[in-house]
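Colleagues,

Please find the record for the two-part complex below.
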Amino acid sequence: MRTIWSLLIIGFLFNAIQVPCFAAPNEESHLLRLMPWPVSLKTGSGQLAIDTSFSVGITTAGDTHLQKAVSIFLDDLRRHTGMLPLDFAITDPAKAQLVVSSERPSKLVQDVGEDESYALEITSSGATLNAPTTLGVMRGLQTFLQLVEITPKGFAVPAVSIQDQPRFPWRGLLIDSSRHFFPVDVIKRNLDGMAAVKMNVLHWHLSDYQGFRVESRRFPKLYEMGSDGLYYTQDQLRDVIEYARDRGIRIVPELDMPGHSTSWFVGYPDLASGPGPYSIERKWGVFDPAMDPTRESTYKFLDGFVGEMAALFPDQFFHIGGDEVNGKQWDANPKIQGFMRSHGLKNNADLQAYFNQRLQKIVAKHGKTMEGWDEILRPDLPKNIVIQSWRGPQSLADAARQGYRGLLSSGYYLDLMSPASQHYQVDPFADGAASLSDAEKRRVLGGEACMWAEWVSPENIDSRIWPRTAAIAERLWSPQNLTDWSSMYERLDEISTWLDAYGLTHNANYDLMLKRLAGSVDVSALRILANVVEPVKGYSREGLATTEPSSRMPLNRLVDAAHPESVEARHFSALVSAFVSGQIKPGTEAQLRAMLLQWRDNDGKLRPLIDKSALLQEVAPLSQDLASLGSAGLQALDYLASRDKAPEDWKTQQLSLAQQAIQPKAQLLLMVTDPVQKLIQASAGETPTDLPIPNKAAE
Amino acid sequence: MRTIWSLLIIGFLFNAIQVPCFAAPNEESHLLRLMPWPVSLKTGSGQLAIDTSFSVGITTAGDTHLQKAVSIFLDDLRRHTGMLPLDFAITDPAKAQLVVSSERPSKLVQDVGEDESYALEITSSGATLNAPTTLGVMRGLQTFLQLVEITPKGFAVPAVSIQDQPRFPWRGLLIDSSRHFFPVDVIKRNLDGMAAVKMNVLHWHLSDYQGFRVESRRFPKLYEMGSDGLYYTQDQLRDVIEYARDRGIRIVPELDMPGHSTSWFVGYPDLASGPGPYSIERKWGVFDPAMDPTRESTYKFLDGFVGEMAALFPDQFFHIGGDEVNGKQWDANPKIQGFMRSHGLKNNADLQAYFNQRLQKIVAKHGKTMEGWDEILRPDLPKNIVIQSWRGPQSLADAARQGYRGLLSSGYYLDLMSPASQHYQVDPFADGAASLSDAEKRRVLGGEACMWAEWVSPENIDSRIWPRTAAIAERLWSPQNLTDWSSMYERLDEISTWLDAYGLTHNANYDLMLKRLAGSVDVSALRILANVVEPVKGYSREGLATTEPSSRMPLNRLVDAAHPESVEARHFSALVSAFVSGQIKPGTEAQLRAMLLQWRDNDGKLRPLIDKSALLQEVAPLSQDLASLGSAGLQALDYLASRDKAPEDWKTQQLSLAQQAIQPKAQLLLMVTDPVQKLIQASAGETPTDLPIPNKAAE
C-alpha cells in the first residue's frame, strides 16, 4: 500500500523532482500516480481541496473546444471522486479554484506536431493551467486528474509545479477492427483511456482479409458483402471522430491495399488479380488475394473510394497499409506478367511500387498525406509520406536518413503478450536511430502500440490494451532517460485501477470470464491459478492450436481471460529475488511461504471446477504443476531455513520439474516457475539463474 | 458450489418437479438456475449441446418482432457462453437445434394481459419452444438461456419439459429518474435485467420536485428550466421504448401531478397554486408546491402536454402520480379557497378529486387509461383507471372490491434496503386480498418494485435493483405457494452473477467504489468490513444524516457502496443457526472460526486505509465493533468446545457489546451482530434470541 503523498511533502517547499531522480526512485517520486511522468515536477507544501463546490474558470473566450474539454474534465473528475452532475461548475475565473488559459485555439482539424505543452501550478489556495493551445490544456487537465487523491481531509490535489511537453508528436494506438469487430462503445472507452495517458492518435485498421468495416455509399458492396453485417456506419464514424477530437485525439483510418484485401473482393471481384468468386477470409495469416495494379479500373475505383473516405475522415493522413503482399496472384496472372514486362517492372516489389505511386497521387489529389507500412518505402515516392515501421528502429532510421518521416510500431505489438517492461525499453531512438542528426531525428514522429485482433474480442480487448499501453504512452511522452521499471510498474498498477473508472473492462471482465469458465459463483481456486499464468508469447499461440484457428473460434478459454502480465508473479518474483540475494525484510519469508502454500493446496480445490467444465479440462496440468512448484518452493525454503544444503538428487529432480512446468500448456505459461527455480537453486547453494520463457523474445 | 445437474438427472426420465416440491427443496430443484421458477418442470435425461454451430429455426413467417427476439436471444446466448458474432445462426427449422413457433404475433403496441405462456421441450436431440404469442416466445427464450450451463462436454441445456405462464399480467419496475438522473445506458441495461427475469413493465417516474426529465416540444421550458440539462430527448425516449418493446417490456410514463411538481413551475410558474418564482428542489421530502386545479389555463396546458406525451409513449396507460399533496398552497390561496366554496368542495381531497376528474377526461381524450397512486381512488372516477398502491394489500383489495384494477408496490420499495426474503413474502393476494372473489382478484394486475432515487446514482443504482428485484419478479410470476427462502436465495446468488453478463454493475462497481474510498489498489481489509455491513433500513438514513441531504450530496460513502443485503452475513448466520441448534456438519466450526478470526484481526489492517481517507473515517467504529464481535464469537466457540458454560458477567458484557454493535454507525448496520449474539447466548447455555435490526420493519 502506498504511503500518501501528503505526509511526505510536509517540510518540502517546491523541491525539484527532475527526471534524473527517477532513475533511482526516491520516496517523493513514488507517491504521485502520474503516467506519463512529466518533464519537470516540483512539489510544494499543502494541498488544494476538491469538494462539491470545486469550479473551473476559463479565461479564454470563444474557444468551444476548450469549453468542451473542461466539461469532459469535470465529468471525469466526478467519476474519480464519486461526485454527481450538480457538483462542480464552470464559473467566473475570479471565483474558480482552477483557472485555465490557452493562448490560442488548437487547429480545427487536429494536426500532427501541434504544441501540446502546458504548465500546471497548484498551491493550497488555487491552481492555474496555462498552455499555448487547447491541446496543451487537455493534456494538463489529465495531469490534474491523475493528481486527485483521497486524503484525511477529503479529495485534494497536492501543491505542485509542473512544466510538461511530449517527446514525440505522434503517440498512437492501432486498433484492428477487421479480424474481430469492436462496437463503438469499445472504441469510445479506449479513447477515454488513451486521453488519460495523453495519447493522441487512434490508428484505426478498418479493412483486411477478414472484414471490411466502413460504410461506403459509393461502393456499398464493400460493407454489404465484406463485413458479415459488422461495420461502422458513416454516422457512427463521424460520432467517434468528434468524440476523439474532443479528447485531443486524431483518427487515422487504414484501408489496407493492395494485399490484406480479400474482404473488398467479395463485392468487387474485378479489383482482384485472380479469378473470383471471393468470400470473407475466416483464417489468420498472409493470403494470396491482392488488387490488380495493372488495370485502370482499379485506380478509377480507388479514386472514388479514397475521395469518399477523405471527406469522411478529416485527418491529414490516410494509411494505405501496403504490407505483406505475397505476390502469388500476380505471379499467376499472365496479363499482369505481360504488363510488368512491357513496363520494365522487374519484380513484384517494383509492381507494388508502381501501385503505390499511382495510389499516392490519388491520395494527394484528395488532399491527404499517404502513410503506409515499411514495405511502401521506395525512393520514387515523395518525401512527405509517412512510414510506419513494423520491422524495427533500424528501418525507421533508414527512412529518416532518406528524408522520410516515420513511426515505430515494432516492439509495441500488444498481441504478442510481452510484459510492459519489454515495451517500455523499446525506444524510437534506439539502435540505428541513435546516430541520426537532429534534423533526421525530427522525422521520427513517434510510435504506435498495435492491437492486432486475431485473439481479441470486445470482451477481452481492453485487457490486452490496458494497462500495458500506459507504459508505451510514457515511453513516447516522457524523457528518454526515464527507464526505471520498478517505478513504472508501481505507477502502472495504480493507473490500471484508475482506468476502471472509464468503464474499461480490463479488470472487470476478468472475474466475469472466470465465472463463466467455471460455471460457478465461487471461483477463488480458479482465480489463484489464473493470477499466476500468462498467455504464451509472440506468435506461438497459432502454432500451439489444436484446431485451425479462425474468426469463428470462441475466445472464452483461460488463455483469453488471463492477463498478458501477471501482477502476482511479478510480485512473487521480486520477493524471491530479494530473498535469495539476502535482502530479507521482516516478513518476506512468511509471505513467500503463504503464497507457496496456497499454490500447493490449490489443485485439490480447483479439481471439482475442472471436472465439471469442458473449458477448464485443459488447465488441469497447469494446476498440477502449480501444486508441484508450491511444494518444491516450500521444501527449498525449509532447506534454506535449516542451513542444510538441499541434496543434489532432490535439486536435479526439482529443476527438471521446473523445466517441465515452464512449457506451454493450454497456450498458457506458469509465470512463477522461474522464481521457484531460483529458490531451488539457492537452497542447493547455487547461484540462481533465469529460466528462459518460451518465445519471450519472439517479437 | 453447486453440483451440476447432469450428474443428478442420470436415471431420471421426466420426473416431475412440480411446485409443491419446492416448499421442501430437493436436490433436483436446487440445480437449475431458473428465476422465476416455472409453473411446471419435468427433467429428462441427457442434454442438448450448445456449440458454435447452434442454430434456431423460426416456423412463423413474417413476424418481425419474433425475428428480432431470436436475434437478441442469440446475442444473449453469446454473452453467456463467450461465443462471437459469427457463431450461432437463424436457419431452416429442419436443420435447427431449437425450433421456435408462435401461433400469432403479439400486439403491435404491447398490451396488459396478453398471453405470455409458453411450452419448452428440450431433449438431447433438439428443442422446441411453442407459445400462443411472440411475447410467450420471449419468456421461453429467457428460460432457455437460464438453463445454459458449462458441463464436462461443453455448454449445454439439460433435457426438460416446461409449461409456464405468469401469475400476474403486470410485473413492473419503477425507476425514478427525477431525484437523480439516469442516462439511457443505465435504463437499457436494467431493461436487459428485467427481460432476463420476465418482468414486463418499466414504470418510468419522469418528473418530480427535483427534475423534469422529458423533452417537451410544446412546452420546452419544462425541461430547459426544470432539468439542469439532465433530461431525455424524444429521440432517446423513442429509442428506449423500442428497446423495451423488443424485449417484451411496456413503458408506462409517470408525470406526477398536481403535487410533486416543483420542477414544472420553474419554467411555468402560472401552473402553480402559490406565487413564484420557483427553482428546482434540491432537498428530499414532501413539499408545498402544487398545480392550481381551479384555473382553466391549467387544464388547457395539461391538454396540450398530455396530448404530446400520449403520442410519444405508445403504451395504453398514463400515470399521473397524484400522491402526497400536502395542500398548503391551496390553503394559502384565497382564490382557490373561493373556488372550493363556490363548487362545494369541502376539503383538499375533494379539490384533488375534482382535478383528477378533469385530468382523467384529458387523458381519456388522448386515448389513454389513467393510472395513479392510492390517493386518486375516489368513486367518482371511471372504473377503468388503475390504482397503484403504496399503502398496502388492504388498500389494493378495497380498490378491487370497488371495481378498480390495481397494482401492489407497498412492500416492494427497493430504496428501503430490505432483504430479498422480506420482499419475497409480500404477496398481492395477502391480507385483505385473500378473501377477494375470483372476479375481484382478476382486478389485481400484479405489482411493481420501486427504485426511488434519493440515494442512488448511475454508479450504484444497479446494486439497489439487483439481484433483489429478481425475487420480486419470481413472486409476481411464479405460483403463490413457492415461498422457500433458502431455494430462492440459492438461485438468487447465481442469478446475481449471471446478470453481470448484461453489463449490470451491481457487482462490478462494488470494488471500484471501495478502491476509490480507500484511494488504494489493495482494499482487501475494507472489503472484509464492507462484506458484512448493510445500509440502514427504511427511511432512517435521512434521520441519521449529519448534514441536510440534497441532490448535490455525493453518493460515494461506504453506505453507498455496501450491498443492501450482505451475502456473507446471511451465510454466517445460517452456519451459526445450524451450529447452535446442533446440526453440525464436519468443518462448520472451523469455518466459523476462520470467519471470526478474520474479523477480529481486520481492524489493524483496515486502520491505515481509514487514517488516510476522509471518507473512511466514519467507519472506524464499525471496524472496531467487528473486531470485538470476532473476539466475542471466538471466545463463545471456546466455551462451547470446552463444555464449560460461559460466565454470567462475561455473557452480560458481550451481550451489551452486541446491543451497542447493532446500532447504526455511518448509516450502516453490522449484520453479523445477531449471529454472534446467538453464539454468546448458546455458550452461556441460553436459548439464542433474535437481535432486532433497527428500523427493519419500517417499510
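Residues 33 and 491 of chain B are 6 Å apart (CA to CA).

Comments are welcome before we finalize the supplementary table.
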